[in-house]
Amino acid sequence: MDRSTIARLIVDRLESERPRIEAQWNKPDGTTTHYFVVDDLLPAELAKQVYAAFPRDGNGFFSRDTFREKKRTSSHLSEYPTILGEITYAIQSPEVIGWCAEVTGIEQLEPDPTLYAGGLSMMFKGDFLNPHIDNSHDAQRNRYRRLNALYYVSPNWSVEKGGNFELWNDDRTKPVTIISGDNRLVIMETNKTSWHSVSPVASDLARCCVSSYFFTKDSPDATGYFHVTSFDGRPDEKMKKVVSAADNALRNVVAKTLKLGRGKDEANTTKK
Fold this sequence. Notes:
Blueprint: H1 3-16, H2 18-26, E1 35-38, H3 44-53, E2 62-65, E3 69-74, H4 82-91, H5 94-104, E4 119-123, E5 128-133, E6 144-152, E7 165-168, E8 175-178, E9 184-189, E10 196-198, E11 207-216, E12 230-231, H6 238-258
Antiparallel strand pairs: 1-9, 2-3, 3-4, 3-5, 4-11, 5-10, 5-12, 6-9, 6-11, 7-8, 7-10
Helix pairs in contact: 1-4
């Protein structure tokens, strides 16, 4: 199925739940980060095709393994079955982005065909993502990151399998837990305080996700700022909190001084 058809299916599904989505976005519970969740985003058979297209062992994916995170990612969509590129760029289509702009009130949203920090993600048993705020900008630092779209496709996923998406309260003491359920779309805002994480995966099966970021030239709070992806420890990880704070400060200085950014060499360079 081509991306334009998939984009139409996505918009139709979102529109069918527009009142509930608007209510969830406007009044987030347990977090100040605005977000919404939509289940059964695509026809079940199509979601199965997307999942089946992921390599079972994450072969060819870039591996991140630090105290901050453990996961595998890839933005080189041409190396995998066509459906993975079609679903990725369907989510980045003008129709989907335009619908999200209407509901969220964020004007002049733009996609990122380079998939900087986006694309495909796989997490295996023991993998995790500590609480963090995303890099503030795109790879060229011309636009601010505003929305994160996460589409999950692992069958029969449950809270017990871990790998749950988490949105934190302001002091990062308690998360809102969102199961990374099959055929589920989560869209959240990204800004200076949108702390989120992924709990450790407990399943022997892979947690598969298609992620995209949307950008604007204006910042979320109308002020100019820059920060790298910045991590924190979980509430019971006191030492990791200390180490993370120092690590964030150092990486911010290096990024601002040398204009470096992690993941730039992993961006998608092929035509979409």
